[in-house]
Specification:
The chain is an alpha/beta fold and about 375 residues long. Helix content is about 20%, strand content about 20%. It has helices at about 10-15, 25-30, 80-85, 125-135, 155-165, 245-255, 280-290, 310-320, and strands at about 40-45, 45-50, 55-60, 110-115, 135-140, 145, 150, 170, 180, 185-190, 225-230, 230-235, 260-265, 295-300, 330, 340. The protein has a 7-stranded mixed β-sheet with strand order 8-7-4-3-2-1-16, covered by helices on one side. A 7-stranded mixed β-sheet has the order 9-10-11-12-13-14-15, with helices on one face. Strands 5-6 form a two-stranded antiparallel ribbon. About 40% of the residues are buried.
């Protein structure tokens, strides 16, 4: 038995964090994706890991940070996007609500780091450090070995470069741009994340005055993506709010790529005075407008002050599906869980493996069977 003198805060952190250790890293590495399928894992927030039959491993909005960890002075930075949006000054009580399910420093295979926008809960300095410091490589469409690319809008690339990612390793994308990653094509689309419009680089009291100013170019700060894979077309809306222009994306994608198979949306219950997440009716409208087959809510997991019940989506869907002749259905995930499309296309909910599949393969060690 270990001497209690050896038990410290540091030893506790090292023995318990990240909470899932390398369990998910190993699961992703060991997964064999069948032809005509695409595998996805939810990393928390809007982070998604894609894996394709051709071996493309793509991390989208990978984030390894947290929210509030102390009450501090009880105040928000006066230039924070929520302060700009609603004129608030009291600290936002956004504590991280889910465990860390993947270890960024234990990632072995990665072909692209992709981000939708510049907010801190969508970018990871830890992952960037691991990729750059270990000289991680992939192959381009011509089979040439290259450094793992960092793909995102201009301002995200500027952040990466500021961290120390070589600029030549980054790919700036704007709506309409395409990047090939093995057997996956990544296509950038317009973002509708209106919180970005009130996000300023300077968050101090000297923040820019936005009143009456023409908004900055959204395309430099945020994009949505379509991931065209052998298993289907997956639309990631980042932190977009609902927009009627989703219908335009749906039509364009149907015409060029055959339609959206799965769409992800940033779902949450907005506090009074705040509009930052799509709510239940927005999720359904987005799926309908995109002509998607499956809609998956994400982001509702992570912040304690934006938590929402996914059953709201199910209730509204049940109320509307026959009358509005919906061609899609929702799927409710768990952080750390996987989803394979089209294999899982008819599923409505995920549950982690319950185990004990080998029950009674061996003789129980009990006094007598009646205790069972």
């Amino acid at each position: 038995m270990a001497d209690l003198k050896d038990v410290t805060r540091d030893s506790w952190i090292m023995s318990t964090f990240p909470e899932w250790g390398t369990w998910l890293n190993e699961e992703i590495d060991n997964a064999v994706v069948e032809p005509g399928q695409v595998e996805m894992w939810w990393l928390g927030c809007v982070g998604i890991w894609f894996k394709t039959p051709g071996g493309a491993n793509v991390a989208v909005d990978f984030w390894a940070g947290n929210g509030k960890r102390t009450h501090g002075d009880g105040l928000m930075k006066p230039g924070h996007q929520m302060a700009n949006m609603a004129g608030v000054r009291k600290m936002q009580p956004n504590l991280r609500n889910v465990p860390f399910v993947i270890d960024p420093f234990a990632i072995k295979n990665l072909d692209a780091v992709v981000v939708t926008h510049i907010h801190q809960d969508h970018m990871s300095k830890e992952l960037a450090a691991h990729v750059v410091n270990n000289n991680m490589t992939t192959t381009d469409e011509n089979g040439k070995e290259i450094p793992v690319p960092f793909i995102g809008p201009k301002d995200a690339v500027d952040i990466w470069v500021g961290w120390g990612v070589p600029r030549e390793q980054c790919i700036v994308v704007k709506p309409g741009d395409r990047v090939k990653v093995k057997d996956m094509e990544i296509v950038a689309y317009d973002s509708f994340d209106r919180t970005i419009i009130v996000t300023t680089t300077d968050t101090s009291a000297n923040r820019p005055d936005l009143w009456g100013k023409c908004p900055m170019d959204m395309d430099e700060k945020a994009v949505n993506y379509l991931f065209v894979t052998p298993g289907g077309n997956i639309y990631h809306s980042g932190d977009s709010h609902y927009s009627i222009y989703f219908a335009k994306h749906g039509k364009d994608i149907a015409q060029e790529f055959g339609g959206v198979d799965v769409c992800f949306g940033a779902f949450g219950c907005n506090p009074i005075g705040i509009q930052d997440k799509m709510e239940a009716t927005d999720m359904l409208r987005m799926a309908e407008a995109l002509q998607s087959k499956v809609v998956i809510p994400i982001h509702h997991d992570v912040w304690t002050n934006f938590q929402a019940d996914v059953q709201e989506i199910k209730v509204l869907w049940d109320m509307r599906k026959d009358r509005l002749d919906y061609k899609f259905h929702p799927f409710f995930w768990e952080v750390g869980g996987h989803y394979t499309y089209p294999q899982d296309k008819d599923r409505f909910a995920y549950h982690h493996d319950r185990g004990f599949h080998d029950c009674f393969d061996h003789e129980p060690n009990v006094p007598f069977r009646s205790v069972l």
